[in-house]
Structures are given as C-alpha cells and as structure tokens.
From TrEMBL:
<dbReference type="Pfam" id="PF02277">
    <property type="entry name" value="DBI_PRT"/>
</dbReference>
<dbReference type="InterPro" id="IPR003200">
    <property type="entry name" value="Nict_dMeBzImd_PRibTrfase"/>
</dbReference>
<dbReference type="InterPro" id="IPR023195">
    <property type="entry name" value="Nict_dMeBzImd_PRibTrfase_N"/>
</dbReference>
<keyword id="KW-0328">Glycosyltransferase</keyword>
<keyword id="KW-0808">Transferase</keyword>
<comment type="pathway">
    <text>Nucleoside biosynthesis; alpha-ribazole biosynthesis; alpha-ribazole from 5,6-dimethylbenzimidazole: step 1/2.</text>
</comment>
<keyword id="KW-0169">Cobalamin biosynthesis</keyword>
<dbReference type="GO" id="GO:0008939">
    <property type="term" value="F:nicotinate-nucleotide-dimethylbenzimidazole phosphoribosyltransferase activity"/>
</dbReference>
<dbReference type="InterPro" id="IPR036087">
    <property type="entry name" value="Nict_dMeBzImd_PRibTrfase_sf"/>
</dbReference>
<dbReference type="GO" id="GO:0009236">
    <property type="term" value="P:cobalamin biosynthetic process"/>
</dbReference>
<feature type="region of interest" description="Disordered">
    <location>
        <begin position="1"/>
        <end position="24"/>
    </location>
</feature>
<protein>
    <recommendedName>
        <fullName>Nicotinate-nucleotide--dimethylbenzimidazole phosphoribosyltransferase</fullName>
        <ecNumber>2.4.2.21</ecNumber>
    </recommendedName>
</protein>
<dbReference type="InterPro" id="IPR017846">
    <property type="entry name" value="Nict_dMeBzImd_PRibTrfase_bact"/>
</dbReference>
<comment type="similarity">
    <text>Belongs to the CobT family.</text>
</comment>
C-alpha cells in the first residue's frame, strides 16, 4: 500500500490558510480536504467519478429465521438496484455517483440486470453454508472472494476518484455480528441488532445464533478470537480463516475492494454494519488499508459503533440509518466532494484582491 503523501497534504494545508475565509471556519471540511490530498497524492483532489459498489450474496444462516425477509429478497433487491429503484440508487443520483452492482454469490442462477445497470458476475458460489452449523465457506472460497474484490477495484473501479461500499444479502447483519465479535472480541449480545426490523424476541434468537456460530467455529477464545485449541495450524490470528468460518461472499468481496482501492490510492467510504465488517476484515488482512478508509454515518445497528471505534473512524452524521445498500456511504460522498470542491474552487486572498 502506498504511504500517505505528506507533501501533498502539507500543500493542501498551506492552501487552506490562503483561501478567502477565516482560518478553520469550514471546520471538518478543511481537515477532510487535507486528508484526501494526502491519500490521493493530489494537493487539490477532485474525487471525480465517485462510485458506489453494491455487492450481493446469500447466507445459509438466513434459514434460521434471523431476518424478517426470505433469501429470495436478495436477488429481487439486487435487481432493483440495477434497475435504479432502490434507495441507494436515488441517493447516488443526487450526489452524482455511479453504481456498480456485483453478484458475489446469490442463491440460484446468476442475477441478470433487468434494468439500466449491468450486474457483474463475480460469484464465488450460490450462497454460503449455515455459519451456525459449521464454516460458511472453504478457505479457497474465502481467498477467491477477497481476490474478486481486489480485481474489481483494479479494473472496474480503476477510474473512480472515491468508492463507497454497499451490500445486499438477507441474513448478513447476523454474519456481520459474528465477524465483529470474532475480530474485536465484543460480546454478541452487545453488537447484535434488529437488522431488518425484527422484534426483540427474534433479536434474542439472533444473538443465540451468533453465539452458536462462534462456538461451532472455534471462535470463542480467552481473547475473544479464534480458540488456539480449535484452530488449524497457523490460523489463530488469520483473518482469512475468520472470514472462512463466519463470513459471507459479499463481505469478502468488499474487503477485497477496499484493499484494491487502497493500493490505487482511492479513498473508500465505509457504510453500515455489514460494510463495517468488511472493513474490519480488510484491515486485519492488510493493516496499511486503514488510512484509506473513511467514515460515513453512525448506523443504527449497535455493532456499527464498535466497528467504527476499532477502525478509529468518527462518523460524519447520525440519521438513524440501518438500511445498508451503501445508502449512508453514498450520502457521505456529497460531504467529501464538497470538501474538495471548496478547497479547489475557492479563491485565495491574493486572487480575490482582498488584503489581510
């Protein structure tokens, strides 16, 4: 991963001091512009061609009744995004972002577009296995999911100035809770939320399913990570092994997208609890990804705050969002682009002929 460009960041900081405004009067926008200069290596970043990548996949654990909706909704909603009928579609249109839709492993045949946007086929398999009964996938599948994400970043997202992570998959907040617990050591009771809006009784059931998934897969150790007695040789702190045991194809793909984007100096905006789990996986796989991850909102799922804290990210806003799809990350794109546009387009005092 490339280091943050300190010279570009310093040049941006000096420009901020010369712009026609009182020092610090644009608050966090000024800090964001400087940070983005360092990430992109451009003292006046434009973040052209922003793109929201929405990856979809199914999860065997959905058959345990952890969601208000059946698995068939994953396919229907991925097609809805491709047709431009989803919330993330509307928000992306408002903020001037493109949308990339990826089938990472929806149950059944590959998802066809049926709309104005192509659905990219990066299928690892037709949905994962039930994490509460055993590993979600094979080691080869976990590696394939990460590799597919890196490949997507370095080909289809190569021209994007900034990328927002989005997802779709019935049952994936359960998987996100299991991954978050395994990678941070957090208590499943604390981080497992209501997902699609289920009642407290089903939420309690979700907690039990997450706990069972962790125990069944040997992820309940003294340190909250993989149990050394259960782990395969050399896998005790292996994030790919965690992904294999309690992950999802779309989570692995988004983690790979983050890694590939960071390698290309492309900032990545993290959405809610599922893409937050992907961000945790990405950082666990490649720690140098961390500076390239940017926050969006504080999600309504309780595990999201734990993820943001672990990643060292301070949310930009809190609108009580819990939809996923990349909706919060798409909304945040407007803030990041505004920070860069004001940094680039504002006149300096000398250019405006204003004495200081």
């Amino acid at each position: 991963m490339p280091d943050v460009d300190a010279e570009a960041a310093e040049a941006a900081r000096e420009r901020q001091a010369d712009l026609t405004k009182p020092p610090g009067s644009l608050g966090r926008l000024e800090d964001l512009a400087v940070a983005l200069a360092g990430l992109t290596g451009d003292p006046r970043p434009t973040l052209a061609d922003p793109t929201v990548v929405v990856a979809g996949a199914d999860h065997g654990v959905a058959d345990r009744g952890v969601s208000a909706y059946p698995k068939s909704v994953t396919r229907a909603m991925l097609r809805n995004v491709a047709a431009g009928g989803a919330a993330v579609s509307a928000i992306s249109e408002v903020v001037g972002a493109g949308t990339l839709v990826v089938d990472a492993g929806v149950e059944g045949a590959p998802v066809e577009a049926g709309g104005r946007i192509e659905v990219v086929d990066e299928r690892i398999g037709p949905g994962t296995d039930d994490v509460a009964a055993g590993p979600a996938m094979s080691r080869a599948d976990a590696v394939a999911a990460l590799s597919a994400g890196v490949r997507t970043a370095r080909t289809r997202l190569a021209d994007a100035g900034i990328v927002a992570l989005g997802e779709m998959g019935i049952g994936n907040t359960t998987v996100a809770a299991a991954l978050t617990a395994a990678l941070t050591g957090a208590d499943p009771e604390r981080i497992t939320g209501h997902g699609t809006g289920v009642g407290e009784e089903i939420r309690a059931h979700k907690v039990a399913v997450v706990e069972r998934a962790l125990a069944t897969n040997g992820l309940v150790g003294a340190d909250g990570g993989i149990d050394r007695d259960e782990a395969e040789a050399g896998s005790a702190v292996d994030p790919v092994e965690v992904l294999r045991r309690v992950g999802g194809y779309e989570v692995g793909l988004l983690a790979g997208v983050a890694i590939g984007c960071a390698a290309d100096r492309t900032p990545v905006v993290v959405d809610g609890v599922v893409s937050g789990a992907a961000a945790l996986v990405a950082v666990a796989v490649a720690g140098d990804v961390r500076p390239y991850l940017l926050p969006s909102h504080l999600g309504d799922e309780p595990g999201h705050a734990v993820q943001l804290d672990a990643l060292g990210l301070a949310p930009l806003f809190d609108h009580g969002l819990r939809l996923g799809e990349g909706s919060g990350a798409a909304l945040a794109l407007a803030t990041y682009r505004a920070a860069c546009r004001s940094h680039d387009r504002m006149a300096t005092f000398a250019e405006a002929g204003i004495e200081r």
